[in-house]
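Entry type: protein chain
Record version: 2
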Amino acid sequence: MVEAFLLTTDPTSEKVGKIQAWLSALQDPFPHQLQLIDLRQQAFFKKRAKETLIVRIDEKQVFNPEDPESLKLALSEAHMNANSTDYRPAAVKDRLGASERFSLWFSRHYLALINIVLALYVFLPFLAPVMMRLGQVEKANTIYRLYRPLCHQLAYRSFFLFGEQAHYPLEVPANSDRLSYSQVSGYPSDDTQAASAFIGNDFAGYKIALCQRDVAIYGSLLLFGIMFALTGRKFKPLFWWFWILLAIGPMGMDGVWQLVSHLELPFLSWLPVHESTPFLRVLTGAAFGWFTAWFGIPTIEESVLEERVRLEARKAIERQKS
C-alpha cells in the first residue's frame, strides 16, 4: 500500500484541511494510507515561528503540496514504483540511513562544533603565557610551536601577560616611561626572526601565542558564533558588498599597507612605511572577524536548513512508526 504522510505544525489549519480533502478525493484512482503527523512534538519544529507543512508520498517529498495536480502526480508515480521489481517495503524506506543520520546530526550541531573549535583556537594562545608563568616551559613551548606556522608571532605586534606592559612597540616617544621591544628583548628591531622567537621573560611577561590582530579576528568570530546561537540563529547573511566594505576594506587599509610597506619593494618606494598600533590592529581585526562571521555563519545556516527540515520530517515519520 502506498503511504502518504502529512506533516504539519498546525493540524487544524485550513491548508491541512484542503490537502486532506484532495488526498481523500484521490483514494479511488490511487489508493493510499494517509497519516497525519504533528511536528510540534519535535523540539526543532516547536521553536520555529514559521508554519511548516510537508507532504511525503512514499520516499518522495511533494515540493508543492498545496497544488492538487502535484499531489496527483506524486501518487501516480508512487503507484508506478509500487509495481516495479525494485520496490522497497515501507519498513526499509522509513528508516534513516547512516549518511542521513550523520547529516541530521551535523545540521543540528554544526554551530556548536564551530564555536568549540574557535574557543579552543583562541584559548590555547592565552594558556601559553600562563604555562610560562607557572614554570611549565615545555608545555608552553609546544603551544608556541603549534601556532607559529599559523601566525608570525612578532613580539612587537603581540600582547603580553604578567609583565610591565601589555605590549612593547618598536619605537616609543622620546622621554617616555614606556619600554620598547628592543629594550625588553635585547634584540634589534629589524631582526624579525628573533622577534618571532622571543617569548618574553620574568620582567616583560610572556606573549600570547597569537598576534594582536589574530586575537581580535578569532575572538570576534567566536563572539558572533555565540551571539548567533543565543539569539536563535535569527541573523540574516550580510550582503557580500557590505562584507567587502566593512571587513576587507579596513583590513586592507591597515594590515596590507603595513605588510607591503615593510617589504621595501623598489617600485613601491613612494609608499610611506606604516607600522600599525595595537588599537588599529584590534579594531580592524575585530571588524574583519565579526563581519566575516556575519557573512559566513548565517549563510551556512541557510544552506543546511532546508536539508535539516527534510531530515527532521523523516525522523518524525520514523518515530511515528517505531
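Comment: The first strand starts at residue 2 and ends at 8.
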